[in-house]
Design brief:
Largest sheet: 7 strands, mixed
Order of helices and strands: EHEEEEEHHEHEHEEEH
Radius of gyration: 14 Å
Number of helices: 6
Strand order of the largest sheet: 5-2-1-6-7-11-10
Helix content: 25-40%
Shape: globular
Length: 172
């Protein structure tokens, strides 16, 4: 069954951490909607390999309209976590135990939304200590799957395993 996936994104996202999951999720028949500060805005990946036109502004969407949240890494999550609207949006998925797929620096947004306590997670090395301090059960593995539906991964090197895990989770 096709799922509607919210992708929160702004400038300096990690290019491949958006493009690679997007490709496999769309190939599996799912719909991705990019959500940023403003609809129509073009955001650039930090390596300059991807640019994305935002589908919907955060004020135009309701988390209830989505089945899954995807948070790519890079500097994007750090920029988004300063905005209460993105924190509330993210918090809804955590509180509702709807799936959240996150990689690299993506968990920074979840930390600020205060939804990681007691969750099994991983992230890029420099974010692991932040996750641990926020109460997550941290491990340094290529993919960590929590019973709540959170699937987390560390770096672009882990994308094959991450992509397989997220596609499999949505086919169950």
């Amino acid at each position: 069954m096709s799922k509607k996936i919210a992708v929160v994104l702004t400038d300096l996202f990690e290019d491949v951490e958006y493009t690679s999951p997007k490709e496999v999720l769309e190939k599996a028949g799912h719909e991705l909607v990019t959500i940023g500060f403003e609809a129509g805005e073009t955001v650039e990946g930090k390596k300059g390999e991807a640019s994305v036109t935002i589908d919907k502004g955060i004020d135009e969407v309701s988390p209830e309209d989505f089945d899954v949240l995807l948070i790519p890494g890079g500097f994007s999550p750090d920029k988004l976590r300063k905005d209460d609207r993105f924190l509330e949006f993210t918090r809804y998925f955590g509180d509702s135990q709807k799936p959240i797929f996150t990689i690299c620096h993506g968990p920074q947004l979840m930390i600020n939304a205060e939804i990681v306590k007691g969750k099994k997670m991983t992230a890029v090395k420099q974010v692991l200590v932040d996750l641990r301090n926020a109460g997550a059960d941290v491990s340094d593995e290529e993919v960590v799957i929590d019973e709540s539906g959170i699937i987390s991964s560390r770096t672009p090197d882990d994308l094959p395993a991450f992509n397989e895990a997220i596609v499999n989770a949505l086919s169950e």
